[in-house]
Amino acid sequence: MDRSTREQLKFELTASRQFPSWLAEQKLSLAFSTYQAGKLFLIGLQADGRLSIFERTFNRAMGLYAQGDVLYLSTLYQLWRFVNTLPAGAAVEGYDRVYVPRIAWTTGDLDIHDVAVDGNGRLTFVNTLFSCLATVDENDSFAPLWKPPFITKLAAEDRCHLNGLAMKDGRPAYVTAVCRSDVGDGWRDRRVDGGIVIDVQGNEIVADGLSMPHSPRWHDGRLWLLDSGHGYLGYIDPKSGAFERVAFCPGYGRGLAIHGKFAIVGLSKPRDNKAFQDLPLDDALKKNDADPRCGLWIIDLESGDAVHWLRIDGVIEELYDVAALPDVIRPMALGFKTDEIRRVLSVGEERSWLTEADDTAGA
What we know:
By secondary structure, the chain is mainly beta. The protein has helices spanning 3-9, 19-26, 280-287, 340-343, 356-361, and strands at 11-15, 28-34, 39-45, 51-57, 64-67, 70-74, 78-84, 97-106, 112-117, 123-127, 132-135, 143-146, 162-168, 171-177, 195-199, 204-210, 213-219, 222-227, 232-236, 243-248, 252-259, 262-268, 294-300, 306-314, 322-326, 331-333.
């Protein structure tokens, strides 16, 4: 590899001055994915207070969901379940979480976007290719759970570009889509103002007129989301269905985690292709005399101010999802490109080979 190629592959992470202190105060680490570079990043703190940046390679890393010691990640044709192998209070080489990939469902290339787990422990994901919500299946690529009322057929056509999922009270509650098209790839013609939010339980559209909305999240009695094509974080007014803007984001917003009163927004530089061209975001950036950036944007939901940031420069220009990891100081994960996966072993609780009925029969 020549020097010019190495230079092109470089990337650099820089943070606002108080970003590490904020992570320490919040007792928080962060995870984010980038399908462009095929990476899962874990951001925490070293013992001296400096940032810890850990990455692993997973082809087309996209949807993230964190729940306790478990982390889910969707990739090109698989959906992974990682489990932390360290007991509470333990650490290995300064890391207090070691996420190990334990289970993978091979789904095929469904273009899985947001991922979540419902109150019954059922894995639920946005199957963007088939325009539906789905779950994993032991025998098939997926099992459909719900589709928008305007989608007349489950077909591998990405009709409306269903992308975001918000859970409420342990159930799928709201989804976002780029439009309500019922024809293959129809969403590309409705990017500017065709965006919608659908109430899954009510089976009705509750907000429209958005531009490529993403990442709906229910938090503190409000439905928050990113109106990505306009460049804003905001929430849906439950009475009018209007999108109430709270903060401008200098980039294409995609990926949202909320921790307390803070929103962590993933930002991407718009791609130089038709899907991202001629969006209202272009004019909004010019109005604010800003260049689009890639990284994390931390917003105080009470004031709308951007209080901290993490900026990524170089080969990585797009992120997809963000997850908050509460009570985690310094996380790491295992992948398949290095040899650690062979040597990290853990033993589960001892279980009897005999069932209770077997014990009784042998007495």
